[in-house]
């Protein structure tokens, strides 16, 4: 069964995108800064990233939450992001 959760667009990866993907490939979970990735990313050419497993919970039509799950813990989320429509 296919679950629809949003809209997506296909985009071809250019040289800059492949460089970033290769830099985060060995990282399984974490957040940080990749220095010198692209001049458009920031004033110093740094790119911030967050890579993790997120669980999505829909509360209602106007609310949803994303929980960043740590595989080493007892199931408690490391980070919670709540989105509410007002």
Automatic annotation (TrEMBL):
Annotated Pfam families: DUF617
UniProt-listed GO biological process terms: hydrotropism
Alphabetical list of InterPro entries matching this protein: MIZ1-like_pln (IPR006460)
PANTHER family: PROTEIN MIZU-KUSSEI 1
Protein name, per record: PROTEIN MIZU-KUSSEI 1
Organism: Salix viminalis
